[in-house]
Amino acid sequence: MTDSSLSDVKVVEWGSFISAPFCTKLLADLGAEVVKVEPPLTGDEARHYGPFPDDIPDSEKSGLFLYLNTNKYGITLNPAAATGREIFSKLLSRADIFVHNYPAKLVRKLKLDFNSVRKINPQLIMTSITPFGLTGPYSDWKGYDINCGALGGINASIGYPGREPLTCPLFQGDYQAGLSAAIAIMIALFQKGRTGKGSHIDLSEAECWATFHIGVGLQAYISEGRVRKRSGFRSLHRPYPDEVLPCKDGYVCIDTPQNRQWLRFLEIMGNPGWARDPIFQNRIETTDKYGDKADAYLSEWLAKNCKEEIFKAGQNNKIPVAPIRTIEEVLNNEHLKERKYFVELDHPGIGKLKYPGPCYKFSLTPAAIERCAPRLGEHNERLFCGELGYSKAHLGTLRKAQVI
After folding, report:
1. Domain map of the chain by residue range?
2. The CATH number of 10-212+338-400 is which of 3.30.1330.40, 3.40.640.10, 3.40.50.1220, 3.40.50.10540?
3. What are the respective helix, strand and coil percentages of the chain, to the nearest 5?
4. pTM attached to this predicted model
5. Cα Rg of the chain (Å, integer)
6. What is the domain class of 242-324 according to CATH?
7. How far from 252 is each of 241, 272, 307, 334, CA to CA, in Å?
8. Bridge-partner residues for 200, per DSSP?
9. How does pLDDT run across 134-175, given as a tens digit for each residue?
10. Do residues 123 and 198 lie in contact, with contact meaning Cβ atoms separated by under 8 Å?
11. CA angle 333, 334, 337 (to 5 degrees)
């Protein structure tokens, strides 16, 4: 990958599932050389999650793993073994960045904590992604996406009133943590360029939720004393409408915070008489007190129109409206096709698959997805023999001992 933003950066990833692999995927797509370290035999946890072709589990065909690990080199290594830790130290001595998402207790036990690794490489940027951070009362607690969302506060406003809170679906917290870590690493690289020194990024997934998505709610509490509560498909204390509603062929999200947007939307609907009812003149009060009644009127018009028609009408009139698209509709979306968002790669043993591409475009140093995710231990010989100088015979011994 030539002329890439991070083409001179070397990364070691010791991560599993989503947060650390997503972080290093973002770096790899920008041209960084990422070496992914997986446990021998079992590999990354993500290999055992679907979707799988024909719903047949196969650790080499996990859609989640294939997406998260494009452009990476993959090796197997057990750092709990003395020889494995020695090899790991050699990897870190050559690296610019080290990213992991394993529990702090295990990292300390294997002497892969920052105080230990900076003795190996003082210029190393180490990033630790954990549920609750490396300090504080919860630092050694187990945590998952659902716990982090709850502690970070996002779950408090998701779901229906009177029912249990919900978590954001599809491990969104893990992706947010990976993205936050990648951003922090880019900043640390600038700092390293000025000072020549490494640094340690201690990133808590719960704090990502608290800072990324609770900021607006916090401001509302400080300024107005408002506390966000679960309100189902409708956002309370907001000008009507700010919600997801059914239409002729699916669902649309409508949000008209400015009064002129609402007036233009009424024009699209033919300026219906119900909108002139006195109870609907204060739109925040409409949302909080008369939302169901307003929805009944609005839904009559929505039921006669398709979501793409409503979306285009909103675009043409500068009204925030968005269709809720299915996966198939996203895949065949004309805008994404024009932007060449999806990338097709030919994976050994699976065939051609489409991957989501980078969500941004750089003119001089474009991100690119050029290689499929590695098979388990695919680059062992290349790295251990070619770069670290081990013989093939020694490699066989390490393999038998399950070091690699």
Report:
1. 10-212+338-400, 242-324
2. 3.40.50.10540
3. 45, 15, 40
4. 0.94
5. 25
6. alpha beta
7. 12, 20, 6, 18
8. 126
9. 999 999 999 999 999 999 988 888 899 889 888 899 999 999
10. yes
11. 90
